[in-house]
Amino acid sequence: MGLISEFKEFALKGNFFDMAIGVVIGTAFGGIVKSLIEDVIMPVVGLAGKVDFSKAVFTLRKADAAAGTSQIDVRYGTFVTVFINFLILAFVLFLVVKAYNTAKKRFEAEKPAPAPAGPTPDQKLLTEIRDLLARR
After folding, report:
1. Mean pLDDT for each 10-residue chunk of the chain (136 residues)?
2. Taking Cα atoms as reference points, which of 94, 93, 87, 96 lies closest to residue 37?
3. CATH class of the domain defined by 3-65+75-112
4. What pTM does this model have?
């Protein structure tokens, strides 16, 4: 099987399209969560702690124009913001997966059990042979 035909088979299977749709929806969902965190949650957290995390820095070295050195800052506030974003996003995704699994179990439980399959042709033949031998 050639490389191009293998790619066509992969792309047309459905998994490729499912993955592409998942990436697009995931990107949009990430934007929603980012806005929720930056525009709703972080101002409340900042108000509670009276800290604007986006501007929180720790200065390692002050700028000195005479010595020609620039200021060096560790912007830990950005890290705190990104870390809180990660925790919230992870929690939201956990809730989404939990809801999906709960719904999946509910839908599987609602399906009626399949009727037992009848005997296979081999089993029918063996049953007939057994009955013929029992009559002798």
Report:
1. 78 73 83 81 73 76 81 84 80 86 85 77 90 90
2. 87
3. mainly alpha
4. 0.50
